[in-house]
Design a protein that fits this description.
Elements (H helix, E strand, L loop, with lengths): L7 H10 L2 E5 L8 H11 L3 E5 L7 E2 L2 E2 L13 E4 L3 H12 L7 E4 L6 H9 L3 E3 L4 H8 L5
Parallel strand pairs: 1-2, 1-5, 5-6, 6-7
Antiparallel strand pairs: 3-4
Helix pairs in contact: 1-5, 3-4
Protein backbone atom coordinates (compact mmCIF):
# COMPACT_ATOMS: atom_id res chain seq x y z
CA UNK A 1 0.00 0.00 0.00
CA UNK A 2 1.16 3.52 -0.76
CA UNK A 3 1.13 5.30 2.59
CA UNK A 4 1.81 8.67 1.02
CA UNK A 5 -1.72 8.80 -0.37
CA UNK A 6 -5.02 7.24 0.72
CA UNK A 7 -8.22 7.25 -1.25
CA UNK A 8 -11.23 8.83 0.40
CA UNK A 9 -13.01 5.48 0.11
CA UNK A 10 -10.22 3.73 2.05
CA UNK A 11 -10.35 6.25 4.91
CA UNK A 12 -14.16 6.39 4.91
CA UNK A 13 -14.33 2.59 4.92
CA UNK A 14 -12.24 2.43 8.09
CA UNK A 15 -14.21 5.16 9.85
CA UNK A 16 -17.52 3.50 8.93
CA UNK A 17 -16.48 -0.02 9.94
CA UNK A 18 -15.01 0.61 13.39
CA UNK A 19 -17.00 1.15 16.58
CA UNK A 20 -14.40 0.71 19.35
CA UNK A 21 -11.19 2.72 19.35
CA UNK A 22 -8.20 2.52 21.67
CA UNK A 23 -6.34 5.83 21.99
CA UNK A 24 -2.71 4.81 22.57
CA UNK A 25 -0.86 7.64 24.28
CA UNK A 26 -4.03 9.27 25.57
CA UNK A 27 -3.50 12.36 27.70
CA UNK A 28 -5.58 13.62 30.61
CA UNK A 29 -4.60 17.17 29.60
CA UNK A 30 -7.57 18.74 27.80
CA UNK A 31 -5.19 20.87 25.70
CA UNK A 32 -3.57 17.80 24.12
CA UNK A 33 -4.75 16.53 20.70
CA UNK A 34 -5.35 12.98 22.01
CA UNK A 35 -7.84 14.31 24.57
CA UNK A 36 -9.71 16.38 21.97
CA UNK A 37 -9.80 13.60 19.39
CA UNK A 38 -11.08 11.13 22.01
CA UNK A 39 -13.91 13.47 22.98
CA UNK A 40 -14.73 14.22 19.34
CA UNK A 41 -14.92 10.54 18.41
CA UNK A 42 -16.92 9.70 21.54
CA UNK A 43 -19.45 12.38 20.58
CA UNK A 44 -19.84 10.54 17.25
CA UNK A 45 -20.83 7.29 18.95
CA UNK A 46 -17.47 5.53 18.92
CA UNK A 47 -16.61 3.73 22.14
CA UNK A 48 -13.25 5.10 23.26
CA UNK A 49 -10.65 3.34 25.41
CA UNK A 50 -7.76 5.62 26.42
CA UNK A 51 -4.46 3.78 26.93
CA UNK A 52 -1.73 5.31 29.08
CA UNK A 53 0.00 3.43 31.92
CA UNK A 54 0.47 6.65 33.89
CA UNK A 55 -3.27 7.36 33.83
CA UNK A 56 -4.59 3.79 34.23
CA UNK A 57 -7.72 3.58 36.33
CA UNK A 58 -8.46 7.29 35.94
CA UNK A 59 -10.96 9.13 33.79
CA UNK A 60 -9.39 10.45 30.58
CA UNK A 61 -11.63 12.45 28.22
CA UNK A 62 -14.72 10.87 29.78
CA UNK A 63 -13.60 7.23 29.63
CA UNK A 64 -11.75 4.86 31.94
CA UNK A 65 -8.08 4.72 31.02
CA UNK A 66 -6.21 1.42 30.69
CA UNK A 67 -2.53 0.66 31.21
CA UNK A 68 -2.21 -1.40 28.02
CA UNK A 69 -4.19 -2.71 25.06
CA UNK A 70 -4.44 -6.17 26.64
CA UNK A 71 -6.24 -4.67 29.66
CA UNK A 72 -9.18 -3.45 27.57
CA UNK A 73 -12.08 -5.83 28.35
CA UNK A 74 -13.49 -6.13 24.83
CA UNK A 75 -12.33 -6.32 21.21
CA UNK A 76 -10.91 -3.13 19.74
CA UNK A 77 -11.64 -2.30 16.11
CA UNK A 78 -9.04 0.46 15.72
CA UNK A 79 -5.97 1.70 17.56
CA UNK A 80 -5.35 5.42 17.18
CA UNK A 81 -1.69 6.11 18.01
CA UNK A 82 -0.69 9.39 19.66
CA UNK A 83 2.87 8.33 20.49
CA UNK A 84 6.08 8.99 18.60
CA UNK A 85 6.89 7.19 15.36
CA UNK A 86 9.38 4.84 17.02
CA UNK A 87 6.74 3.67 19.54
CA UNK A 88 4.28 2.73 16.79
CA UNK A 89 6.05 -0.58 16.18
CA UNK A 90 5.64 -1.66 19.81
CA UNK A 91 1.95 -0.68 19.68
CA UNK A 92 1.45 -2.87 16.61
CA UNK A 93 3.31 -5.75 18.27
CA UNK A 94 1.06 -5.39 21.34
CA UNK A 95 -2.00 -5.35 19.08
CA UNK A 96 -0.90 -8.60 17.43
CA UNK A 97 -0.95 -10.31 20.84
CA UNK A 98 -4.64 -9.53 21.39
CA UNK A 99 -7.20 -12.33 21.13
CA UNK A 100 -9.08 -10.34 18.51
CA UNK A 101 -7.01 -8.30 16.07
CA UNK A 102 -8.08 -4.73 15.30
CA UNK A 103 -9.34 -3.86 11.84
CA UNK A 104 -7.11 -0.77 11.65
CA UNK A 105 -4.04 0.93 13.03
CA UNK A 106 -4.19 4.71 12.72
CA UNK A 107 -1.07 6.82 13.27
CA UNK A 108 -1.79 10.48 13.92
CA UNK A 109 -0.23 13.50 12.21
CA UNK A 110 3.57 13.35 11.98
CA UNK A 111 3.59 9.69 13.04
CA UNK A 112 4.93 7.27 10.46
CA UNK A 113 6.55 3.89 10.92
CA UNK A 114 6.84 1.81 7.76
CA UNK A 115 8.03 -1.28 9.63
CA UNK A 116 4.94 -1.12 11.86
CA UNK A 117 2.72 -0.68 8.81
CA UNK A 118 4.22 -3.70 7.03
CA UNK A 119 3.82 -5.86 10.13
CA UNK A 120 0.19 -4.81 10.61
CA UNK A 121 -0.70 -5.30 6.95
CA UNK A 122 0.93 -8.76 6.87
CA UNK A 123 -1.57 -9.64 9.58
CA UNK A 124 -4.59 -8.28 7.71
CA UNK A 125 -4.83 -4.95 9.54
CA UNK A 126 -5.44 -1.77 7.55
CA UNK A 127 -3.05 1.10 8.25
CA UNK A 128 -3.26 4.88 8.05
CA UNK A 129 -0.22 7.01 8.83
CA UNK A 130 0.32 10.75 9.27
CA UNK A 131 -3.38 11.58 9.32
CA UNK A 132 -5.69 12.87 12.02
CA UNK A 133 -8.80 10.76 12.54
CA UNK A 134 -10.79 13.84 13.66
CA UNK A 135 -9.80 15.86 10.59
CA UNK A 136 -10.57 12.94 8.27
CA UNK A 137 -13.90 12.30 9.97
CA UNK A 138 -14.89 15.94 9.59
CA UNK A 139 -13.76 15.97 5.96
CA UNK A 140 -15.36 12.71 4.86
CA UNK A 141 -18.17 11.81 7.24
CA UNK A 142 -19.87 15.04 8.24
CA UNK A 143 -20.56 15.95 4.63
CA UNK A 144 -22.47 12.66 4.25
CA UNK A 145 -24.40 12.96 7.53
Amino acid sequence: MNHDHYSDNYIRGILESVKTIAISGASANSARPSFNVAQFLMARNYQIFPVNPGQAGKDVAGSLCYASLKDIPQPIHMIDIFRNSEAALSVVKDALELNSLPKAIWMQLDIRNDEAAILAEKNGIKVVMNRCSKIEYKRLMIETA
